[in-house]
Amino acid sequence: MALWITDECINCDVCEPECPNDAISLGELIYEIDPGRCTECVGHFDAPQCVQVCPVSCIPVNPAHVETPAQLLAKFGRLHPDRAPHPATPAAASASAPPPVVPPVATDQRPGVPSDRLGSHGSGASSPPSDVSTVRG
Ligand code: SF4
Ligand code: SF4
Asked: Is domain 16-95 given the CATH code 3.40.50.720 in the classification?
């Protein structure tokens, strides 16, 4: 959902510069939020910045603009086509979750050959030949 500003707003001006989407502006009487630009700060922060700074807590969600986190993230993409969403935002984190890990398959073991006889070539761990005889003087 986008947020909106109720008539309890005291026009203190502190929320407008905090909005990363330029969604807040001074209306006829009080400040207003453009629902077409408000993403609830999805894509930028993990919480709405205007709500954090408002001294009178007059910025609730706007029930006339119900949107899912994915829709808010898509709105962020339309507003900022050249920017990636911040990975800390919940919607971004779920949208960019890595694919499930597939366990490794097919080892290169040859049947019937003891594992200690595999891969010994070129290892440098050579042992002396068994037929070396002692030279007597
Ligand atoms: S929630 Fe974020 S994007 Fe929406 S008006 Fe407030 S600061 Fe702007
Ligand atoms: S911070 Fe709250 S009181 Fe101040 S201008 Fe914004 S909505 Fe109004």
From this structure: no
